[in-house]
Amino acid sequence: MDLLLSLALQILYGIANLALISLGLAIVFGMMRVINLAHGEFLMLGGYTVVVATNNGVNLWFAMLVLAPLVVGLIGLIVERCLIQWLYGRMIDTLLATWGLSLLFIGIITSIFGASTSTVISPPLGTVTIGEYTSSGYELFLIFVVIVLLALVYLTLKFTSLGLVARATMQNSDMSACLGISTSKIYMVTFSLGAAVSGLAGGLLVPITGVLPNIGVIYIAKAFITVISGGSAILAGTTSASVLLGGVNGIMSYITGPTFGEVALLFAAIILLRLMPTGITGRFFRKSQ
Amino acid sequence: MRLYGTFNGTLVIAGLAVLFTLIAPSIFQFFTIITLTQVIGLSILALSLALVWGFGGILCFGQSAFFGIGAYAYSVAAVNIGGSTGSIFIAILAAAVFAAILGYFVFYGKVSDVYLAVITLTVSLILYSLMRRTSGPEYKIGNALLGGFNGTGSAPLNIPGDGSAMLFPMQTFYVSMAILVIAYVFTGWLVTTKFGRVCVSIRENEVRTELLGYDTRLYKLCLFSISAGIAGLGGVLFCVGVTRVTPDVFSLGQSALAIIWVIVGGRMTLIGPILATFVLYFLTSSLGSQQILNANLVLGIILVVFVLLVPNGVVPTIMNWFERRRTKRYERQKERRMKLRKHRAIG
Question: Rounded to an integer, what distance in angstroms lies between the CA atom of residue A126 and that of residue A138?
């Protein structure tokens, strides 16, 4: 019983982790049809923000929950204005340009901080004991944060005027422009928000993974496969794909060890895409956000 | 004579390459010759990507996955068989078969091109994290240890049929150059065949090609598989040049480099990416040795600038410039002749 509970918690954490690293990407992709290959580097920048801030004496919680999203959101704003806004509608060029951007960020951060791991921050909140097994309290906290984040995105999209305008732009940008909405401004805000969520995720993951200039690589494959398997609906897509792929990964990792967990995740995703080329939300829950 | 885009042009360039091979030992140092073998492997990777992307319109971001599979398959097979000739074919076959299986899922699932780019990239990255974890004696194929992070050693090429007669570095260079020329002429020939033309028409308009009665899924699958085989061949030469293969062949940086070479050289040509590989390789390795600018930083800037400003690549841009100048001159001559004629008529 204790084993089952602890295993369930581990799988739940795997799912939350997937959702956390893909949400920023899903927002940008779902709203703007822009595939941001620099997504991993946004996470990395969030991580470095936290490391630099805590080294300068800032409270860890403040650095993770406020500074990281703020800084990366601002970087996202600059990137959108300088680069992405010239490439709307040219999906492949956007892909290539953001890839260049990702190399650029890795290069800049390596030049500043060096290629090795910066100061390690140990996870706060201690451990939680379930019978004879223990689990990290911080992982429980991350599960909670992901639920709050998903709820916030849902509420913003559904009940605020910004959400309404954003959804309208997503459905038909020409028509929204005719109705007097500045779609360029909406895209700018969406991209910055997506970057901010990525920054938050990167900051929150620092105590678990540490941070390296090329740590984005670890996240990016999983984030992309989750978003693409999920399809275009931001919330339903991310959630359903995270649950499915995170579940497969968790169970396979438990049975065979971590080496084949990720391979199983990939296989599940490729078979899923063979059956549903437009992702889960292309087939089911079509009316969801 | 119009050189670019015709099979005659391909033969002329292949002739130039043979000339280069013959004079290379007298102008380069011995060390550069050894490095050149690696670069030849990488340029074959660029060639394969130019084929699948420039001529088939299939944006494969994970071309280095096939390159790496070729390299690993060669290294493992060479240990188990004890000779390089059969291992090379095993490597090509392994890469092509892997691509065929992956291609079946993506092309027959009608995955759109941008998704395809991301899926291929993801496959490459998953292979990267998988191979990094294979350290330890339990991960081996036959007698070959996979070696995890440090990778596994790659046997040098040997004379066919005699596993103990290793080739010297200079001979390896000649063989690699010959393989590059053969691969180049083969792809140049392939794009002029009926198969190649159907692939180009799929790139231009897939729906229309399908309506004309071609099974575009099958054509794309075949092209994908062929180009993966060529990439695997490139992987063989690369790991022979380096003498070992590490999981880094699957890394994001390796995939990015292949894309950059093709973009800079010009994706609608076959020679452009090959030349770009040679030029950019020596550029980045000289940057790597001077430590002021980070190599990633420079590559990032090159990629962004080329996407925004020179999206067609260097070779087509230069060719178009020459073509435009020629037509302009021709028109000017025609105008002058017309004027002269008018003048005479009046006079």
Answer: 7
The answer to whether residues B266 and B310 touch, using CB atoms and an 8 Å cutoff, is: no
Instruction: Tell me the whole-structure pTM to 2 decimals.
Output: 0.81
The full DSSP string for A185-247 is HHHHHHHHHHHHHHHHHHHHHHHHH---TTTHHHHHHHHHHHHHHH-S-HHHHHHHHHHHHHH
Q: Looking at this predicted complex, what is its ipTM?
A: 0.75
Percent of chain B predicted with pLDDT > 70: 95
Average pLDDT, chain A: 83
B165 domain residue, yes or no: yes
Which of A32, A35, A86, A104 is the best mutation test for B, with the most CBs of B within 10 A?
Answer: A104
Closest CA to B112 of B229, B220, B201: B220
Asked if B297's CB is within 8 angstroms of A96's CB, the reply is no
Mention every residue, 6+ apart, whose C-beta is less than 8 A from residue A70: A196, A199
Closest-CA distance, B1 to chain A, in angstroms, reads 33
Q: Give residue-wise pLDDT tens across range A245-254.
A: 888 888 887 7
- List, in sequence order, every residue forming a beta bridge with B166; answer none if it has no partner: B158
Report yes or no on B98 lying in a domain.
yes
The chain A residue lying nearest B107, using CA atoms, is: A274
Q: How many domains does chain B have?
A: 1
Q: What residue of B is the nearest CA neighbor of A261?
A: B130
Name, in order, each residue with C-beta under 8 angstroms of B208's C-beta and a sequence gap of 6 or more.
B201
Looking at residue A106, its pLDDT comes to: 87
Tens-digit pLDDT profile for residues A154-167: 888 888 888 888 88
Q: Average pLDDT of B270-286?
A: 86
Q: Which residue has the tokens 């350290």?
A: B135
pLDDT of A32 reads 80
CA dihedral B191, B85, B259, B187 (to 10 degrees): -10
Q: What pLDDT is attached to residue B235? A: 92
Determine the Cα–Cα distance for residues B220 and B108; give it in Å rounded to an integer.
10
B333 within some domain: no
User: Cα–Cα distance between B78 and B166 in angstroms, integer?
Assistant: 12
Measured between beta carbons, the chain A residues lying within 8 angstroms of B302 are 100
